[in-house]
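Supplementary Text 2. Reproducibility record for the structural model of the 291-residue chain.

All settings were left at their defaults, and a single model was retained for analysis rather than an ensemble. We include the record here because the model underlies the residue-level annotations in Supplementary Table 4.
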Amino acid sequence: MILIKGEGSKRRFLLGEKIMGNYFTSLAPKEYFKRYLQFGPLALAIFRAIEAKNIAGEEMNAPLLDIGCGFGEFARVFFESRVEMGLDNSWKDIIGARKVDRYKKLTCADARALPYSNNYFNTVLSVSVLEHIEGADEVVREVYRVLKPGGKFIFTANTEKINDLLYWPKIFHNINFGYFEKQYTFFYNRLFKHHSLWSVEKWQHLLVTEGFETKICREIICRESTELFDLFLITAWPPQLIKLLIGKRWTWRPKWFREWLVRKYLCFVEEDPKDGGSNLFVVAVKPNDKQ
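Retained model, structure tokens:
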């Protein structure tokens, strides 16, 4: 099923400024963190809040496509009103995203073959999705095609460095349990379906090869935050099981407990990596002279 909305007027949404739509408001990292803690596991709340604070620094133009929108969890936290299009390859998640009401239209399709016209979108967003797609280079090629000249491709993606920054492999390494160190990393990547866990250099080369001009390419999610994510993964299972039952995550946390978590862990959300990170934040532009 292909759902495409006409372009209409060229609305813009800037940080903290209401211009014919106010698609999102630039919030402090603390606010993104607090929003995620209302329904998401702590591990994911830390990870996504860091991504949100980096993405929030970028001006975006409509129409916007969110690749890998899932069941709308990130959009629920990040956007204040609906954007033009969300895409995912799971009908179940598309149904969940519809309930969140952050997308005007939703498409169930493969991101490696986007069902949209050439030069259609001004912004394409993807939040920690590309590493889960086998042949992510095909997605980048398709994004270039559907972007208008001057359009932005804004994305985050786990890189191969995450294997060196996880908590439990480090513990196994320190106690000379090399076999368990390798097995944990192997099953971690199997669990999260990491098919395109690439280096920063490979991402940079791919973007240039496909014709993009890279404006920002920086590593985010520092070692400490990545270790916390891995350490607290065990607490993510109850909300994940609930998602399987009702189509969205839910967790019970009294307000006082959420406030305590913010005081305790906000420093990890606010900290920027000093020696690299497990995730890549990229803003790439399709040059105006390219069709």
